[in-house]
User: Fold this.
Amino acid sequence: MIPRPRSWSEGGPGATLADGMMVAADDASSAVAGLLAGELGAGTGWRISRAGPGGTSPHGTVRLRVGAAVTVGAEGLAPMASALGNSLPNGPHEGYTLRSGADGIEITGASAAGVFYGTRTLRQLLPPDLLRVAPSQPVGAVELPGTEISDAPRFGWRGLGLDVSRHFLPKDFILKLVDVASLHKINVLHLHLTDDQGWRFPVDRYPRLTEVGAWRRESPLGHYHEGRTDGTPHGGYYTKGDLAEICAYAARRFVTVVPEVDMPGHMQAAVAAYPELGNTGEPLEVFTNWGVSEHVLNMDASTVRFCAEVLEEVMDVFPGRYVHIGGDECPTTEWEANPASKAWCEERGLTGPHQLQSWFTGQMSLVVRGRGRVLLGWDEVLDAGAPPGAVIVAWRAEEAARVALEAARSGHDVVMAPEPWCYFDWAYADDAREPLAIRAAITVQRAFELEPVPPGLPEELATRVLGAQAQLWTEYVLTGPHAEYMYWPRACALAEATWTVGERPWDEFERRLRAHMPRLAALGVNYRPIDGPTPGQARTWRNPGAA
Assistant:
């Protein structure tokens, strides 16, 4: 199983499930029961009935309930502030017990989320073919051994990041990603919606953000250092209905969607749509290269109001507690050259342009906090001076441990996403068979070796580490199947690193991971085999510009 449960024992008679089985649930577990019944019915073709907590069936019963029967050891479980808004600490409220016996299967969760994770464990206990959306062959009775599992996660923030700004990926791919991620008990999907190269979120007040900003004239061909282009327009955006659907679909699977609108840098697409947001007055197009554009937002009051109004519409669509404003890689070159910069600084009591980003982040924090939300920013936000209550996402390889320590000492919670373990846009290996990537290499083992609490972080500050997430930047990832290749199975390793408590020997994990591959295959995931790409995968994503 992936991730590995805290405790597992087997013995005695087990449960049998067959056509005509029942899913019985209390009111608090009813929505989870409906989801499980639909999934099992699809994969088996069985008739599955639903009932209240007292229901039973001679063909097998799965009982779901929220209760206090979850018994997990506190060892290694950090009593973190609740990352996802639950009043209980992360970890315990997501815990569950699962028991398989002659009288059926019983899953008891500390919350509905805990019940849901117990059902994800149950799905992994069943034959992999039952993960399909329709039976591949007639399914007879399924027997499970007598089993008792007690489980809860180490961290409450177990995330995947997806960049849809560099290459637009369709809604259906995101829904599938939520399904596969939630099977692995991953509970955060961070959507990077805007950047220099594309704007994917529709803003009613500013329609040109998608009319103009969602489309670029061309993209780099091959590695961007080569200076070649493909001459092909690229773009797209989600409707607000699409994004609301993604959020609702994810919420049913206890995945929180965190939107990111990057500001005040990484905004050339917005400046292309509304030139008055820029510093030079020159007309721009949506950025057609990778890397970082020096065209950033000006700090005029009207531009700050624009950003606030964009965030208001973002928060209207995304109901989750967290709003990410990026804040990374913001060059100050244009601010230093802009004659208006001196006036902006004087009005705000700043000593120079180097303080503008910190002031701006504080203004956006007020907007977010005014709606009862929490602001997230990349670790440069801390360098510039993070506002109270902001959560810092530590990503820079050489800085991540320092950032975590500095943030925690300053009273900020931290999500770890250090490049050498968590940047899944890096190739798996320095191997010509691998698809073109920004750089090499993060092997599955390297991803598995992530330790979310940096070495040297004092124990009293370790509770500030909410967890970790992996990022998939899509400069070199054009399609959903390619994205799946880059995520899986490295995301399995991320799931293990953020859920599992105690020692994590690689050899033991690798054995489980190899046994797990048929599950990914049944789900239709275009995963990379542990030993390297298939000939078809290597052929499909070889650099199209290579000689």
The mean pLDDT is 93. The chain has two domains: 7-151, 157-540. The longest helix spans residues 301-317.
